[in-house]
Amino acid sequence: MIVAGRPSHGKTVIGVDIGMHFAGAHNVSVPYFSLEMGSEQLVRRMISGTGRVDGHRMRSGYLDADERQRARAAVTRIADIPMWIDYRSYNPLRMRMALKRLTAKLRTGGHPPLGAVVVDHFHLLAKSNPGQENREAWVQAAHDMKRMAKEFSVPFVVLCQLGRKCEDENREPQLSDLAETSALEQDADIILFAHRPEMYVRNRGKDHLRGEARWIL
User: Fold this and answer.
1) How many CB atoms lie within 10 A of CB 29?
2) DSSP secondary structure string, the chain?
């Protein structure tokens, strides 16, 4: 499953929510490969989303009593969810080895079995071969993750950043915007676009778009 969008359009929120749903509702372990942000930043986002607390207010420390209570309840809920955050740099080969080690650890440690994998995000995967061009590396990475999904028999949720074309044309993203990484479109079973029109430069200051988000499946 590909979750694609422009920066700050909510890809990480969707990835976290999907991972937490798998782990919490189905009692399975979900590794979250956070290639963009550290674990502390990601956990803050998890607390904000789970507790329905404004992330900026939480970072700045200006929470009222009700918001602090919701944040504490979110921390308690998150602590019981078997989601494993890994923020080291990976290429597909190293990721496969990490997943093999994790599945062995889950079997011997009495943890819930592997249920899904979240990768945040695709374009930050390191090249398997130093001499590879970006396009060649991305095609290889897309094929590798498709194979890993088959090997481990779990869904892979892969976050992907879109180029500027849809923003420059002030429109919703569409399949042609994945042209840079066409291998993703070919290998994916599901593609979800995250779209927040208020984040486009041309739409800044348009109050009727404030807070609006669209998920295009």
Assistant:
1) 23
2) -EEEESTTSSHHHHHHHHHHHHHHHH--BEEEEESSS-HHHHHHHHHHHHHT--HHHHHHT---HHHHHHHHHHHHHHHTS-EEEE-S---HHHHHHHHHHHHHHHHHHTPPPB--EEEE-GGGSPPSSTT--HHHHHHHHHHHHHHHHHHHTS-EEEEEE--SHHHHTTS---GGGGGGGHHHHHH-S-EEEEE-GGGSGGGTT-GGGTT--EEE-
pTM of the model: 0.84
pLDDT digit string, tens, across residues 19-30:
888 888 888 999
Between CA 212 and CA 197 the distance in angstroms is 7
User: What Å distances lie between residue 190 and 7, 23, 175, 176, CA to CA?
Assistant: 20, 20, 11, 15
- pLDDT tens for each residue of 81-120: 888 888 888 888 889 999 999 999 998 888 899 999 999 8
CA distance 182 to 118: 20
Structure token pair of residue 101? 């080690």
